[in-house]
Each structure stands twice: as C-alpha cells, then as structure tokens.
Amino acid sequence: MRIWPRTLTGQLILVLLLALAISQIVTLFIYRFERARALRVVIGEECLGRAVSAFRLAEGVPPNQRKSVLKTIETPLTRYWLTHDEISSEEWQREARDHLLKPTSAAGSNNPTASMFARETMLNQLSTASWRELPGGTWLLQKPLHILDLAAWNGFGFKMQLNDGEYLNMIYAKPEYLMQSALTPGYYTALVITVLIFAGAALLIARRIVRPLRHLTKSAERLGRGHEVEILREEGPEDIRATISAFNRMQVRLNRFLTDRTRMLAAISHDLRTPITSLRLRTEFIADEEMRQKFNATLDEMQGMAEASLSFAKSESTAETTRVVDLDALLESICDDITELGGKVDLTSPGRLPYKCRSDSLRRALRNIIENAVRYGECARVTLHRHSDRIDITVEDDGPGIPAADRERVFEPFVRLESSRNRDTGGVGLGLSIARSIIRNHGGEITLSQGNKGLRVLIQLPPVCPNLA
Ligand SMILES: Nc1ncnc2c1ncn2[C@@H]1O[C@H](COP(=O)(O)OP(=O)(O)O)[C@@H](O)[C@H]1O
Ligand SMILES: [Mg+2]
Prior knowledge:
The chain has helices at residues 8-60, 66-72, 89-101, 113-118, 185-224, 238-282, 289-317, 327-340, 359-377, 418-421, 431-441; strands at 78-83, 132-134, 145-150, 155-161, 167-172, 323-326, 344-348, 354-357, 379-386, 391-396, 445-450, 455-461. With 469 residues, the protein is of the alpha+beta class. It has 3 domains: 8-178; 185-319, Signal transduction histidine kinase, dimerisation/phosphotransfer (DHp) domain (Helix Hairpins), CATH 1.10.287.130; 320-468, 2-Layer Sandwich (Heat Shock Protein 90), CATH 3.30.565. It is rod-shaped and about 155 Å long.
C-alpha cells in the first residue's frame, strides 16, 4: 500500500495534516502534564488558605461549638472534623473518605456529594503518601501544619493541632469528572473544523499551482511534437508565473530561431543558383570534351542539391497546421503512387488509424523512406502497427542494407553511400535527413537496422495523445 500520494495536492494535504497532528499531540502533552501540575499547585495553595481560615475560626470559638461552626463552612468538596489522637495516614484517609461521602448539612437533602463520589471508585485508592510538615509561621500560624498530598483523589488533607491539643482535620477532594479532560466534545469539534480548514487551504494552494502547471505540461508536450502552441496566460503564484513566462519566451525564441534558420537555408540555396549558372556558361570554353562533361555532371549535382535544399526550406517555412488524418489511408496512397511509377510495394495495416499530425510533412517523410526501399532494395514491405504506447511503421526491403557503421551517417544532409552514387538514382542525399527532421518534429524517432533480407527502417510515433485532441 502506498501512503505517500503522487500528486502535489495529495502531498500538500498530507503534510499539513501531519503537521497539525504533531502540533496537537504536543499541545495535549503540555496540557496533560504541565497544566495539570500548575493547576494542582494553585489548588493546593487555595486549600491551604481555607485550612488556615478554618483553624482561626476553630480557635476563636469555644470548644463545644467548634463542631457546629465548622459544619457551616463545609462545601461539597471540603469537610472538617475534630479528633483527639494522632492516627496513621491510612486510618486518616479512611476517616476522610467517610466524611466526604456523608452529605453536608449546608447543602440540604439534595446534596450532590455522596453521588458525586459514590460513582467514583477513586476514593477507594488509599495514598501511601505521608504527612508533610509546614513549619509554623509560614501561614501566620504559630503551630506547624501537616499536609497530605492525595494525588489519586485530586485532593489534599490538612491536620492542625489547636491550642487545647485537639486536632482540626480538613479534606479536600475533587471527583474525577470535575477534572476536565482535554478531550472534550468541544475539543473534537474544534479539531474537525481545524482539519477541514487545513485541508481546504491545502487544496486551494495546490489548485493555484497545479492548474497552471497542467497547462504548461500540455503546452510543452505539444511544442515538443511540433504543434503550434499559443502563448500561455501567466497565472498562479509568482514562481509559477516566472516559469510560464520563461516557457513563453523560450517558445518565441525557438520559433524565431527555426524561422531564421530555414530562411537562411532558403537564401543560400537560392543564391547558389546564380554562380552555378555562370559556371555552366563558362564550361562552354572548356576545350576538352570529356573534361567538360565531368564539369557539367558536378554542376548538375550541385544544382540538384541547391534545388532540394530550397524546396525543403520552402516547405518548412510554410508552417503546416496539424490535423487528424487516417494513417492507413495516408500510407496506402503513398504506396499506390509508387506502384504506379513501377515500384514493388506491399502494405500490411490493421485498418483505419486516425492520427493528429502535419500530414503533408509526414507524407513526405514516409514517401522518402519507401522510395529509398524501392530504389536501393528492389521492393518495400510496409507494415503499420498500433501499440498501446506508440505507433510503429516499418519499411523493409530486399536490398544490400546499410552497414552498421554508416547507419547514423546516412541521416546527415547530402550523405550518399558509395554504392548508390554509382546507381545514378538522381537523389542528392537529403531524403533521410528530411524524414528524420519531420518524424522527430512529431515527437517520434526513426531507426535503421538489419532486416530479414535488406534494410529495416523503424518509425516510432507517439500515440494519439488525448492532451492534444
Ligand atoms: N533502403 C536502403 N537500402 C540501402 N541503402 C539505403 C537505403 N535507404 C537509403 N540508403 C542509403 O542512404 C543514403 C541516403 O539516403 P537519402 O538520404 O534518402 O538520400 P538519397 O536517396 O537522395 O541518396 C542513400 O544514398 C543510400 O546510400
Ligand atoms: Mg532517398
């Protein structure tokens, strides 16, 4: 199972929620330990104050009225009683519990105390703590005051000896449910709301980034395949805007660069015609007949190269728009043309295959390759095959093939292998370079290899991409 999400939105939400969870755990930890500790200190001081007041009160009234006076200052959480002897801490706690479970006279019959503690088994846990002595003078008492820390009861016990030797005892204990836990329904509600707000915020941020990024991806993909791409709107956060703007600038520069190159190629091949023509006129003055013919053959070759370059440059400069064509029909019409001119071509195709491309360019590329097979390899076996992730077109022939060492070189402009130079086929060596340029422009690739008999040319095109539809 993968936990780490793939998308930016998913990752952002997960990271924010993790951060939230960690901060909540830390907060609860602080609440549980630090705040509870602080509260206990405060409550302890408060109880101490009450114990001291009760002591003064008990001292101030005659011994026979003490019990009834002390009764009047009891609260549901506080009890006072008098004893004569020193008793053990455990004994004292049992007595304290009995007093706590007895209703106070002050609160009348619907006294909540008994039920408050009856529900709680906490009072059954006796503390092993022993009495701590607070020396006299600290709280304006002349006599020492004894404190019992009853953490299990959330309370404190106090013991003070009155002037006549009697002990005044006080117990304070807080039922557990009054010790508000941090994990209240209110807390959960707040947590759910916070989670929703965080997730919403993450979604909002991610959307602002993802939306323009998606457009950028689509445009880059299209640009790479030679489709015309419009200038993207700069949207989203500053960083993303900068990226989009850089992409737009790159696209403009790339287009300008390409047009400049093609224009230059066209100008050179065009301007070469004049010197070639003037050279041709001058061959008339060559006396040696054989020499003149050789000169003319070379000039023919030069002229052929210039014409081919010019026609390539011209076709490149008229930016052809992309449209959907049937690849099967396209191949069939190329094969028919070549058959009519006397070539031997055989096409195997699975049938209709609509494909978005620059159809005129693609036709030119495919025609160059099939013509090569017929010219140099006697026949062409063309197959069209559709894979899930690409489209394959293979062209095989029965010729001599191309030695592995020359398979990259033949793609260079004006490169013709020695064997074909003798053949007088009329080519100038631009066919494969043009074909590769066009196929790469469609985001595809062309590779040469040894086939069953002759050369095998494999043209791989990217599949019909829904992004480009
Ligand atoms: N099917 C093939 N079999 C053998 N050699 C080939 C084949 N296709 C191309 N070649 C070699 O590659 C060279 C370059 O091909 P290309 O660029 O089409 O130029 P051109 O056909 O004008 O000579 C050809 O001159 C030829 O020597
Ligand atoms: Mg050729």
